[in-house]
Design brief:
Layout (H helix, E strand, L loop, with lengths): L2 H4 L44 E6 L2 E8 L8 E9 L3 E6 L15 E9 L4 E9 L3 E10 L3 E10 L7 E10 L3 E12 L13 H6 L1 E4 L10 E4 L5 E6 L4 H6 L3 E6 L4 E6 L8 E4 L5 E4 L2 E3 L10 E2 L3 E5 L4 E4 L13 E2 L5 E3 L9 E2 L3 E4 L4 E2 L18 E3 L5 E3 L15 E4 L4 E4 L13 E4 L7 E5 L14 E5 L8 E2 L7 E3 L4 E3 L10 E4 L5 E4 L2 E3 L2 E5 L1 E5 L4 E4 L12 E4 L5 E4 L12 E5 L11 E4 L3 E2 L4 E6 L5 E5 L3 E2 L9 E3 L2 E4 L2 E5 L10 E8 L9 E5 L2 H5 L18 E2 L7 E2 L31 H10 L5 E2 L16 E2 L2 H5 L2
Parallel strand pairs: 47-55
Antiparallel strand pairs: 1-4, 2-3, 3-10, 4-9, 5-8, 5-10, 6-7, 6-9, 11-45, 12-13, 12-50, 13-14, 14-15, 16-17, 17-20, 18-19, 20-21, 22-23, 23-25, 24-57, 25-26, 27-28, 28-29, 29-30, 30-56, 31-32, 32-33, 33-34, 35-36, 35-40, 37-38, 38-41, 39-40, 41-42, 43-44, 44-45, 46-48, 48-53, 49-51, 49-54, ...
Length: 801
């Protein structure tokens, strides 16, 4: 068999494919599922019975059945004396006679005794899929250096559907040796205690929404959860031209502990900026609004070059050096080395920026253009660029304002090679405007879900589409997911049930600590017709479960994000008539009504390094633990949101957590650490800081990377011709500026069901509360001022329509 192909898929020495379900510390089955666990029975060749050689890459190695055993007379020694890449491992033979039979949905305790002379050794699992055959599954635990015989134990994730057998062993991926003996594998007993409902039956099934008594004092469209749990809410001018003209730019810090807001002096109009948490917890804010469109619509929004850092300790902004270009609506993705890369947005002259920007973590400044690899491509506005586990970027196809990029609408970008490979399968690519994309739990699975969307330019009814891609596959392609459940939509006369294919744009998607995804909010059209629907997506079953609905409209400029206590907060709504919803909602998911919450009673160390084993204590048995990166969300987009599973080793109430050695899976920074019990009930999060300078400075930072997404069939392109910018229509926001004030959005294209008559258009504007609309200048492209009195949709206009 092709050993390299057998290892194509995931990387991560602490990888996982689904949540570890660790129930009460009851004994597992006494039957060891491993045949020849101590290598005592000889095989037909030079390997013991039911064991085989495996591995890949450029390295020199030996496999030795040695007499230096833990028990009995034999053990297995795997040694690398030279390594360029790859690994070697002794695995249970992948055959029906030798590979242990497993049951989907169950978990297994794995154990072995070992000695090592290298820190680069890990327990590696493969699984047999009844359709696809043998394939790499995950790595569970890095083995510490050990000169004497040492026991290692770990619990597997739940066995995926379609899997009937597994094989496993120890991978050596650095120079040195690992000697192993006395393997054990036992099935974990099923949990026995069902949850007790502590709320109403409705709350236990669907959760509960509360509208907070205190309103958000600023028109915030950017929400960043800070280390410690406070929330930075950035408004800038808040899409209000009068604020812009007055130089009134605002931010606020919200404290969930007491419900208070603190207004923060804000130096520039950060309306529609980009933002991301740096490794030390400070927030990098890039670009923003230099100028609103002109009243005649000939000049659009303009982005400035300024950049700032917000310090959560002092709650102040400090200016950095300038970016090379303006970027109104830029992307912002933190990389595994702590650098930040940014694409897209609008320049100072309202054209589209084709400049890639790189903020250096080491230098704490934006790099000059000549130091940054350039595609010279226009990636659009808020393109969703998700860091993959090998350091490449996956452009999911979620973006803002109008059509997607040319081609398939989705791509893998390799910064080092400076190549872009188109990825197929994204349906209706030009109707994914303000869809949401999320790296599904756990990050080790490398699956991305894209939900909903519409199109500002053509303004069709938003769709219900979801598409899922597995980036572990050698030739990844989106496949159709289940449709978003339908709710109600307000067409101007109160909510009515959605019909046909009506879905929503302005979708919010939030990772939950039980390993599921909350999706909520949205609207049917461009800044109009709010949709009231909330559901929870289960990545394991790929199904939606409709739950309680946010009572507030959450369309354009809304945000939703996870709080450290496990609740979800939602803010904002900015419909086309220019109004703003200052009400704040908080959702308590069903897991908060399923009995007492587990508690993390101590965290031995809050400073974590890659590849660490970190110990916590809990007040009772837990099912799994994970790191969730805090939100930095705007316009349905948070490409840095991720959920990283932590494999467990358990001794009573002491739990050892195995931290991934791969910074691309969990980029450096502050994370919320949750412990979750067997019923999916999470603890309140503890904050831990993951940095690991040793791992980041290693000469071989990709030390155990299994290839994946390594044979995409899409079109591959290198950098294009060097150019200054991309021409972009000044109506990029889908608004006709000939009518009303600048923060009022009369659609350039009305919904398809609205007839192209003055009367029908004016009726729609009235139903959506647009009020009095002054005509700017002499042009009337939508024919709304028939009597030429300078007021659109006046009595004389409608009567003559």
């Amino acid at each position: 068999m092709n050993l390299r192909r057998r290892t194509t898929a995931l990387l991560s020495v602490a990888g996982l494919t689904s949540g570890l379900l660790l129930t009460a510390p009851q004994p597992a089955s006494a039957a060891n599922l491993i045949k020849n666990p101590g290598f005592e029975t000889a095989g037909a060749g030079d390997m013991p019975y039911c064991w085989e050689k495996s591995g890949w890459g450029d390295n020199d190695f030996t496999f030795t059945t040695t007499a230096d055993a833990h028990t009995g007379s034999k053990a297995m020694k795997v040694e690398l004396t030279r390594r360029v890449d790859g690994d070697r491992k002794a695995l249970i033979t992948e055959s029906a006679a030798c590979a242990p039979v497993v049951t989907p949905g169950k978990q297994y305790d794995l154990g072995l005794w070992y000695k090592t002379t290298t820190p680069d050794a890990a327990i590696t699992l493969f699984r047999h899929d009844t359709t696809a055959g043998w394939q790499y599954w995950t790595d569970l635990k890095t083995l510490d250096l050990a000169g004497d015989w040492t026991e290692a134990t770990v619990r597997t994730p739940e066995v995926p559907a379609g899997t009937d057998r597994i094989s496993w062993g120890v991978s050596v991926y650095g120079t040195g040796s690992a000697t192993t003996d006395d393997y054990t594998m036992d099935q974990v007993p099923d949990p026995v205690l069902p949850p007790e409902c502590t709320g109403t039956a409705e709350q236990c099934a669907n959760g509960k929404w509360d509208v907070l008594p205190t309103q958000n004092p600023v028109r915030s469209m950017h929400s960043v959860v800070l280390p410690g749990g406070k929330v930075l809410l950035i408004a800038g001018s808040g899409n209000d031209e009068s604020m812009f003209e007055a130089g009134t730019f605002t931010s606020a810090v919200y404290d969930p502990a007491n419900g208070s807001y603190k207004i923060i002096p804000t130096p520039k109009d950060m309306f529609c900026a980009g933002h991301v948490q740096l490794q030390d917890g400070r927030v990098l804010v890039m670009s923003g609004n230099k100028g609103y469109p002109t009243a005649d619509g000939r000049i659009g929004y303009q982005g400035y070059k300024d950049s700032y850092i917000f310090d959560p300790e002092t709650e102040t902004y400090t200016k950095t050096n300038d970016m090379n270009d303006g970027h109104w609506y830029p992307s912002a993705t933190i990389l595994g080395n702590g650098d930040v890369i940014s694409f897209g947005g609008l320049r100072e002259d309202s054209t589209g920026s084709v400049a890639a920007e790189l903020f250096s973590e080491a230098e704490q400044q934006w790099q000059p253009l000549w130091k940054v690899n350039q595609t010279w491509s226009y990636w659009g506005l808020y393109p969703s660029m998700i860091l993959m586990q090998d350091g490449r970027l996956f452009y999911s196809g979620s973006h803002v304002f109008g059509n997607n990029i040319p081609g398939t609408g989705s791509a893998i970008y390799d910064y080092g090679a400076n190549t872009t490979t188109q990825v197929p399968g994204l349906r209706n690519k030009d109707e994914r405007d303000q869809s949401a994309s999320v790296l599904l739990p756990p990050a080790q699975d490398q699956k991305v879900l894209t939900l909903g969307g519409g199109n500002i330019d053509s303004n069709p009814e938003a769709n219900r589409l979801t598409d899922i891609i597995d980036l572990k596959q050698p030739n990844p392609s989106y496949v159709a997911g289940p449709p978003i459940p339908q709710g109600t939509v307000d067409m101007g006369n109160g909510p009515v049930p959605q019909t046909g294919n009506q879905g929503k744009m302005y979708v919010s998607a939030v990772l939950l600590p039980d390993g599921k995804v909350l999706e909520t909010g949205g609207a049917l059209h461009n800044r109009a017709n709010p949709v009231y629907e909330t559901s929870i997506f289960d990545p394991a079953s790929e199904t939606f479960d409709p739950v309680a609905v946010d009572p507030e409209a959450r369309g354009y400029h809304s945000s939703a994000f996870l709080l450290p206590d496990g609740r979800v907060m939602t803010t904002g709504d900015n419909p086309g008539n220019g109004t703003w919803n200052h009400d704040v909602s908080v959702y308590s998911p069903p897991y908060l009504f399923k009995g007492p919450r587990p508690q993390i009673t101590s965290v031995i160390d809050t400073e974590w390094n890659y590849g660490d084993t970190q110990r916590i204590t809990v007040d009772r048995p837990i099912a799994k633990a994970e790191l969730i990166r805090p939100a930095a969300v705007t316009h349905s987009s948070d490409p840095n949101q991720r959920f990283v599973d932590l494999p467990l080793s358990v001794d009573g109430n002491n739990v050892d957590l195995n931290v991934t050695s791969n910074p691309n899976l969990a980029p450096p920074g502050w994370y919320m650490l949750f412990a979750v019990d067997a019923n999916g009930v999470p603890s309140v999060a503890k904050w831990v800081h993951l940095q690991g300078p040793q791992a980041l400075k290693a000469t071989d930072a990709s030390a155990h990377v299994h290839d994946f997404a390594d044979a995409p069939k899409g079109k591959v392109a290198g950098p294009g011709k060097k150019r200054v910018s991309q021409k972009v229509s000044p109506t990029v926001s889908g608004c006709d500026r000939h009518y009303g004030s600048i923060n009022v959005c009369v659609p350039t294209d009305f919904p398809a069901e609205v007839k192209k008559t003055t009367a029908a258009r004016c009726e729609w504007l009235k139903a959506n509360d647009y009020g009095r609309l002054k005509v700017n200048g002499k042009d009337d492209p939508l024919n709304l001022d028939r009597n030429r009195d300078g007021i659109a949709c006046g009595k004389g206009d409608v009567k003559r329509g």
